[in-house]
Amino acid sequence: MGVPKRxxxxxxxxxxxxxxxxxxxxxxxxxxxxxxxxxxxRVCPACGYYKGRQVINVEVA
Length: 61
What we know:
- By secondary structure, the protein is an alpha+beta fold.
- It has a domain at 28-61.
- Helices cover 23% and strands 16% of the residues.
- The protein has one helix spanning 10-23, and strands at residues 28-30, 37-39, 49-50, 53-54.
- The strands form 2 sheets. It has a two-stranded antiparallel sheet.
- Strand 1 (28-30) and strand 2 (37-39) form a beta hairpin.
- The longest helix is centred in the N-terminal third of the chain and has 14 residues, at 10-23.
């Protein structure tokens, strides 16, 4: 069975582990109010609605 000749450096270990955070990006769903892409269980950044009621006021530019 192949065995590594040397221990991987800290830099190499950290580079390998850093990629795991990229894989767990939040999945986007559709806002039920305005159909804009939004993270589920969060206030929609486009319209400010959550669960059918307005939570924050969003200024239209």
